[in-house]
Automatic annotation (TrEMBL):
It comes from the Bacteria. It comes from uncultured Dysgonomonas sp. PANTHER family: ALPHA-CLOSTRIPAIN. Pfam families: Peptidase_C11. The chain crosses the membrane at residues 12-30. This is Clostripain. Keywords: Membrane, Transmembrane, Transmembrane helix.
Length: 377
């Protein structure tokens, strides 16, 4: 009888242990399965739009390679690159942490300066990673707010150029759904204009741009070391490194006019200008800081111009404070492109502005169609 009881007790104990083992094993299997079913959420995506189907094609390849070399994958972050060159069709690429690139889509020959193409790429990026905060970097020829083919100067283009096609600022803005980006960084010339910033005020929280041209090779070398700063959402740190790069150069290469602009304060700035500045007042434009290398200037320092339209020191102090609220970071070299029809930089508010001139009646009429002019008239 005792042996039977003992065997029964041992059977019960073994059964309990076996049940516990199966339960624990089941929990491990369920846990592993659950982890496999819950992919990492991508929270930050940088979309790079390399529109280089133009004279910048070679530089576009250099930038793509620099970004590939510089990007080290981090959990929850991605880099997508739309690349269109002069010798190949356009494609959408995704960078991997092992410095490799996956081709997500190939488009063949297409016009990267077409607003519908630009919008398609933005929507694709947002669709791939719907929970992510998106940042945008744009590289191409550009000329700020100036409409395409509006000014006979080969160095000036509108926002994006593809061979003989250009994208107007208004079309560029319309292609971007509101609140799409944390920031937009322009590796393109003359994009720090108030006209540009105001047109894009609902598209991104911050704009990163240059008042003057960007001297080649632009940000190529900075990508190799600091592309991660852009992906992580730290454009000020990236731009400080970009400025340091140019500031340590010699000759014409020591040329930079960079700024980071906060769009949330731009309507306050426009309201003040409308209330207190006499935009019909004639000014001697030779006294206003220029930011282009032409004898007939089209890009002037915003602060230098609008401060000259005010009546009192108090108003000028208030406007200066509003400009500082909009321009959260800026840096400039003392001179721009020395020896190449360059200019001394005595004033740099971080924004530029167009001043209407009798010599450009057609351009003046186009300027009156900008959202900035309509806000301050």
């Amino acid at each position: 009888m005792a042996n039977k009881k003992q065997r029964a007790r041992e059977f019960i104990i073994k059964t309990i242990y076996m049940t516990a083992f199966i339960f624990i094993l089941g929990m491990v299997v369920v846990s592993c399965t659950k982890e496999e079913e819950e992919p990492l959420v991508v929270s930050k995506v940088s979309l790079v739009y390399l529109a280089a189907d133009n004279s910048l094609s070679g530089e576009g390849y250099d930038k793509l390679e620099a970004i590939r070399q510089g990007w080290t994958a981090t959990p929850g972050s991605r880099v997508l690159v739309y690349f269109d060159s002069a010798d190949k069709g356009a494609s959408l690429l995704e960078l991997r942490g092992d410095h490799q690139m996956d081709i997500l889509e190939e488009y063949g020959e297409e016009n990267a300066a077409a607003s519908e193409v630009f919008r398609r790429v933005i929507l694709k990026a947002a669709g791939l990673y719907p929970q992510a905060t998106l940042n945008l970097l744009v590289f191409s020829h550009a000329s700020g707010w100036l409409p395409q083919c509006s000014y006979n100067n080969p160095s000036l283009r509108s926002v994006v150029m593809d061979r003989n096609n250009e994208m107007d600022l208004a079309d560029f803005a319309d292609a971007i759904p509101n609140n799409s980006f944390q920031y937009i960084i322009f590796e393109a010339c003359h994009m720090a204009g108030i006209e540009v910033a105001y047109q894009l005020r609902y598209k991104a929280r911050y704009l990163v741009a240059s008042s003057a041209e960007i001297v080649s090779p632009g940000f190529t070398d900075i990508y190799r070391e600091y592309i991660g700063e852009l992906v992580s959402g730290n454009p000020v740190s990236f731009m400080q490194q970009a400025f340091n790069y140019f500031d340590k150069q010699t000759g014409y290469m020591r040329s930079a006019t960079f700024s980071v602009i906060k769009t949330a304060k731009l309507e306050d700035l426009a309201g003040f200008i409308k209330t207190y500045c006499d935009i019909n007042k004639e000014v001697n434009i030779t006294n206003i800081q220029p930011f282009d290398r032409n004898s007939d200037h089209l890009f002037f320092d915003f602060g230098s111009y609008y401060l000259s339209l005010l009546a009192t020191d108090t108003q000028r102090e208030e406007l200066s404070a509003l400009i500082e609220a909009c321009v959260v970071w800026k840096a400039t070299t003392p001179y721009f492109m020395e020896g190449y029809r360059g200019f001394v930089i005595e004033e740099h508010s971080g924004l530029t502005a167009y001043i209407m001139q009798e010599a450009y009646p057609s351009l003046n009429e186009r300027y009156k169609q900008t959202e900035w002019y309509k806000a301050i008239k």
